[in-house]
Amino acid sequence: MQKRTKKWGIAAVIATSIAATALWVQAGSNEESQIRQRLTQAVPKANIVSVTASPIAGVYAVELDGGTIYASADGQYLIQGDMLQVKGKEVVNITDQAKSKQRLVLLKGIDKRDEIIFPAKGKAKAVITVFTDTDCGYCRKLHAEVPAMNAKGIEVRYLAYPRDLPRVGPNAGTGAHMTEIWCNANRAQALTLAKQGRPVPAGKADCKAPISEQFALGRQMGVTGTPAIFNEKGEQIGGYITADRAATILGLN
Predict the structure, then answer these.
(1) What's the sign of the alpha-carbon dihedral 233, 237, 230, 246?
(2) pTM of the prediction?
(3) Which of 79, 111, 144, 226 satisfies CB 3.0 to 4.6 Å to 70 for a cystine?
(4) Residue at which a domain ends, from 68, 87, 106
(5) Residue 86: CATH number of its domain
């Protein structure tokens, strides 16, 4: 599993870069250099993924690890928030469109063998990908809705996002617990037991679970809390939602 995960991680990074340039035009080298220099000087730990020209002249989209901000050409002024465009009688969220395109490519790069999948009953009518934390109350509440979602034709694919990972690492706390689940002979059953607060059978001793890689993917996709649910278009459709609400959002009702 470790070998597959590494390939997936590299592919995801490359795919994100391709997706970003599909909507934004690459910034000039001078502007990009100035923006990177000023931002890094002010925030040394900032992970700048890309700098691209936005639809507004003189304003550049700066893709950070987990979000997008906008900067002037000299990097002196920063704007935090979504960029909106008025198109006739509607207002389009340009920022969210760009994020969705990037997320879609990232989702397509995931090896299904690294997910915990609860298949739809019969032919799947829709698929959702959920970043989850086994110790999250709303994640547990959402999991109780999964059987009803499956009955409505919704396939649920889980990825790990232990919220305490940045503080304790992947081998302690929730990360360690989720490793046991991902390394279990019956991962779906193990995840359900964990969400019910029940003991989980020990996982395989020689298993390397992709917990850190999936957490990093969540950060790339802008996940800040759990549960975080994405549809097949890469759009984030919610945190906790009921099966009926999910079916409505996904156009199944």
Answers:
(1) negative
(2) 0.77
(3) 79
(4) 106
(5) 3.10.450.70
